[in-house]
């Protein structure tokens, strides 16, 4: 049995992870961690003193995930990170630390298999289009923008071309930010925050005479659980550093 702890266990995603781990025949829930819950451990350190943890799943907040990951990797706890908001430099450091300490680390901007396929399809389409932009839409309680999924999508597309703003005229924003944020390979990312959404993303490709849109919509957080469990099982067997669920599908 893989002994799993869940950090951020009282949140919407955390509750789903707790249920998924409990129901899975290959995993055992050994600790629920949440700073805001009286009936749970308040820190990873507190849980670690009491529990034997093989893999910790983190769905907390952007401001805490990096420190959580540092603690795990420096104390022999493999970690699956579902919280987005890590900087490129932080991801690079976690990769270095994971390899140095031989402690598995799995970072996934999105655990939905459909969303990951969208990202993979976008990378394939990037070979055939010179212009592209991304629109990501989330609930209005999401604290980071753009989403980790959008950033990862742009990164994957940038592996195919150096720029996706070919032929664009010089631009002047009369309202700052109107064109979104410029990401890898000059891909503009537009972030929408609105009650009613969970998570959606459109990747829009254009060329003379045609537009192609690849879109994924999440209607229920349960769709992430298959990917989370895949990541947990992967680390239990491989103990390596992975960035993106696409690397094990």
Task: Name its key features.
single chain, 249 residues, alpha/beta, Rossmann fold, Dihydrodipicolinate Reductase, domain 2, 2 domains, six-stranded parallel β-sheet, five-stranded mixed β-sheet, 7 helices, 34% helix
Structural notes for this entry:
With 249 residues, the chain is α/β, with parallel strands linked by helices. It has two domains: 133 residues, NAD(P)-binding Rossmann-like Domain (Rossmann fold), CATH 3.40.50.720; 106 residues, Dihydrodipicolinate Reductase, domain 2 (2-Layer Sandwich). The protein is built from seven helices and eleven strands. The chain has a six-stranded parallel β-sheet with strand order 2-1-3-4-5-11, with helices on both faces. Strands 7-8-6-9-10 form a five-stranded mixed β-sheet, with helices on one face. Helix 4 links the parallel strand 4 and strand 5. Helix 1 packs across helix 7, helix 3 packs parallel to helix 4 and helix 5 packs parallel to helix 6. The model has no long low-confidence stretch (mean pLDDT 96).
